[in-house]
Amino acid sequence: MTVLNSKIPAGPLTEKWSKHKAAIKVVSPANKRKLDIIVVGTGLAGGSAAASLAEMGYNVKAFCYQDSGRRAHSIAAQGGINAAKNYQNDNDSVFRLFYDTIKGGDYRAREGNVYRLAEVSGEIIDQCVAQGVPFAREYGGTLSNRSFGGVLVSRTFYARGQTGQQLLLGCYASMNRMIGQGKIEMHERNEMLDIVTIDGKARGIITRNLVTGEIERHGAHAVVIASGGYGNVFFLSTNAMGCNGGAAWQAYKNGAYFGNPCFVQIHPTCIPVHGEQQSKLTLMSESLRNDGRVWTPKKKEDAIKLQKGQMSPNDISDEDRDFYLERRYPSYGNLVPRDVASRAAKERCDEGFGVNETGKAVYLDFKYSIERLGRDVIEARYGNLFQMYEKITDANPYNEPMQIYPAIHYSMGGVWVDYNLMTNIPGLYAIGEANFSDHGGNRLGASALMQGLADGYFILPYTIGDYLADEIQTPRVDMNHPEFVKKEKAATTRMERLFNIKGSKSVDSFHRRLGNIMWDYVGMARNEKGLKYAIEEIAKIREDFYKDLRIPGEFNSMNIELEKAGRVEDFLELGDLMARDALNRNESCGGHYREESTTEEGEAKRDDENFTFVSAWEYKGEGQEPILHKEDLVFETVELTQRSYK
Amino acid sequence: MADKILKELTIRVWRQKDAKSKGKLESYKINNISGGTSFLEMLDILNEELINKGTEPIAFDHDCREGICGMCSLFVNGRAHGPDNDITTCQLHMRKFSEGETITIEPWRAGAFPVIKDLIVDRMAFEKVLQSGGYISVNTGGVPDGNAIPISYDDAEEAMDAAACIGCGACVATCKNSSAMLFVSAKVSHLAKLPQGRVEATRRAKNMVAKMDELGFGNCTNTGACEVECPKGISIANIARLNREFLSATIKE
Amino acid sequence: MSSFLSSSIGKKLIMSLSGLFLIVFVLVHLILNSFLMFDSTGELFNAGAHFMSLPIIRFGLQPVLFGGFIIHIIYAITLTLQNQKARPQKYAVQNLSNSSTWSSRNMFVLGGLVLVFIAMHLMHFFVPIQIEGNVHDDAQLVKALFTNGSMGLVYTGLYVLGAILLGLHLAHGFWSAFQSIGFSNKIWKKRLEKVSYFYAIFVAAGFIIIPLYLHFFA
Question: Which residue ranges traverse the bilayer (chain A) (predicted)?
Fold first, then answer.
């Protein structure tokens, strides 16, 4: 029998959330004033939760590592946010959004959670409009929608190519209002290092003030982790430089289970790596695939010439171009889902048909749509993106095809939570990308913003009351409680250990090594041998890390290398767990592709019989193997089918 | 896409131990930088070399490296976000520099943005201005349907133009008076152009300007440098609107 | 209201209103001066000058005019001092030529130089005509200054220089005043800038042509 209790309410799918809301406890306004909540992270999930909880009357302490809450990486989301408003009268509905999300996630998410997400999606739009988010409008004054990959209706709301920014500024403005009223205590440039549990309940956190280097104690009645994803385990990703899995990882190390760590999303349209010294990858919007055709040369000699820079793509005639997505997937063509497009690009490049000097790029060509629609139309649609591409690469996409290659983008996996978004540690919650919840094995475009805001505005504020209603008698925790003293000491010791290695290599050099292993063996295509090799290699990198790390500067002041070292230490452990999870899940599912589990044509093959479960990993201590718990996924409403894009 | 290689560059950079210490410009040589390398990657490379030599790396703010989070700053060769238009420092590439060039990198300079370390400044003043009124006073829940209040296409677009501000502080950094008027006016305009924000527009303008003045930013003299150096091209027409809102707030009193 | 006047925007409003007032004055002054060119006998100009010496003008409008100047100067000094303070540590390298015009960045310097010019100008004409009151032919006094031997050339040069400084000051000041009172947007900014440049060139050219005309043709 599993130790996991997902607490999904019984009853019909459509009534689960409303019945649950009616059943859970509520805290009175007078008592809310006595209760403190810590929120770690100020992205869409953390920001919206912090603002909403403070408005309700709780005392909120919010933390972020950036210099302002407004800079969380939610800000970089371009495309839009989904909501089942059916404003376009195209027969969209809560059920349709639910179904698309479940199917898009390759049937590895909970029906109950996803349905709830679809249910509250409409309210999110209303809320954002009320906050002053300048969504795109029609001339008549109503909200405009666009369509997005993998679905048949137009349900994506957007604010130019900056939807994430505008939504984040919306909830950040609400936060600011609460900060101004003294209901939120904001701690910028602060990084969480540990969670303090007392009597089995989460009661606070230990942080490092990134400006002074001081280790600080912060107490509360509940702790919410909203620290985003862990894509940076790959070193190169579309995540912000500072994005880290630290807070989620500390939750894990304190006993919270980590769900589906191997599920990460690889985005097919990023600007390729240009050299050894690159630090960051840039995403080009997925919308480009609407009008661009993806190809590589048919002849290997052409590819070799392109790699050596002896030939221009425009020299290759149409007959010698291999439009491999159109060839392999005639019905969806260039619009196959992200995971499929990414793997196909990798397959071509692995076969030696890559088109840049590293051999790791394919073309995304607008020549055909420019011929068909005219340059003006393409410019109106993608002008900004083309300009951005040209700024970065110095190549003009109107005249020659763009070069693209897949890159790590989003982590579906994360801290395991129940229906209330609470981890298995009472009082410890995880929301947004930091939890494992709603996207299963693969996330659909424009759904990350929806999930973050759903959790923060409309789910956590209710469900946290169910727990806090029993905590109203609990006094504020004494900051000198032995657990706080112990955890502070542990955090200091941990940082000192890293600082005092005094080796010869930079943090980045280890991070880069880890990233290479992760990308090669725990990336787009995985197999048993590679994963086992990765686990061994990661162990070696860890060993070297503790022997040869060098952190210049001072301990008790701003020390950027020390910050990074702590994050990379977490990534080294997280990478190991990802590889273990990937090894365990011997099926191909969503973003997780096991070469052992494919159809005869080389397409991904899911194994519902053996793997229709959430992997929830339990930490057993340094040097110990983690234990896998399985939460069986029960599908009462949808029927599981194999995805096909042929 | 073959980019040129810059064989040698001299990087003159502001080093300052902490807020209390006195800083100074120090020079470093860096070799073989590809034109396709971003400016911040160049600094990463330089930092890697410094670490290998046992020197403390240069501290600078950065995060998304996609030009949207607003965390990166840097005054490069006398210009906010360096020698290119409509970009942030993270979007600046080394092909904009030439062989043998000396590149001077300084932090944002403003009394309201004190240096924390090296190139990192404290932009909390911006946060405080926003906390004084840069929002619509609405709680979560209980709001009307998104389509209940029609908003004209042009108003939505104009609001979006102003809302595009990333809060990087280039306007203050480049302004000869260290004025924050572009930043404040962008928020005031964004919200004033929408019916939801119109309700408390004058009050907002008054409170935000009062806070801005209190924090020691300079006065706007309409040189217009801010809108040129703004990575998002926010127009100083917003400043005129702020002046208008502020004036009408006073008249109504 | 007091909080308004002490706020940055309030102070700038005063700068712009006093500036607009002075802009109007400059135009009136130019029109009056142009009489020197249109009537070589000087009678027209003398009539204008006489009108300006009427008690209603001298004791009614002149104090207002001086008040306008003084307010404009005091607020310029206050704002400039505050602006200096807002950046205690200067940049080692600063390149603003790409992003703003020279005159917009140097309004205080330009204003100061214009003030020096005005002081000289008052010594030349205002003091003898209005204070000492012993001049009978004002036009002759003016003509004499610009034609009197080698010094005539020097004064002509100084007055041309003064007009150029004033023009530069106005080129930014004119539209900037409208911007500060909030009368501008994306469309009007461009229009106002054009009007601003036209006005500045018109005024500067006018004030340049008059001394040159007097020096060479009178």
Answer: none
